[in-house]
Design goal:
By secondary structure, this protein is mostly helical. The chain has one domain. The protein is about 50% helix and about 5% strand. The chain contains three helices and two strands. Strands 1-2 form a two-stranded antiparallel sheet. The radius of gyration is 19 Å and the shape is elongated. The relative contact order is 0.15. Bound molecules: zinc ion. The site of zinc ion has 8 residues, from loops.
């Protein structure tokens, strides 16, 4: 209770050094939690930030990862997925309709998950830098 600020003044013995109230990057990306206060509603769309946190007022939209940052995350992922598709085709030789059934949702899921993780990691680093 009462841990609204980002500073960790006197911390009780045995508590980890991370700031109280901050969810981890994976948890924040998965459950759309504010990296600063842990409130829900980080994303307005599957991979797009909401304008700001409704609880602590943290500005999400101004910390959106730029297209170059997203390219760095997405490009190797697409190469990996293409290799996976080629490998699957080579080893199991599934029919074409099965490829058409598997890959679109899988690619969408993997790309959205990667974008969310990258964006939350970027946002968290920016917030932590501002707090210092
Ligand atoms: Zn917040």
């Amino acid at each position: 209770m009462g841990q609204l600020g980002c500073h960790s003044g006197v911390k009780p013995a045995g508590e980890p050094s991370s700031i109280a109230g901050q969810p981890g990057i994976v948890r924040a990306a998965l459950f759309a939690l504010c990296p600063r206060c842990g409130a829900t509603g980080l994303f307005a769309a599957p991979a797009m930030f909401a304008p700001k946190c409704r609880l602590c007022g943290c500005e999400f939209a101004s910390h959106e990862l730029g297209p170059r940052g997203l390219y760095v995350v997405i490009a190797p992922l697409i190469i990996g997925l293409v290799c996976a598709a080629l490998w699957l085709d080579e080893t199991l030789r599934p029919p074409l309709w099965l490829h058409a059934l598997i890959w679109p949702p899988l690619v969408a899921l993997v790309v959205v998950a990667a974008m969310r993780l990258a964006k939350v990691a970027w946002l968290t680093s920016r917030i932590n830098r501002e707090a210092e």
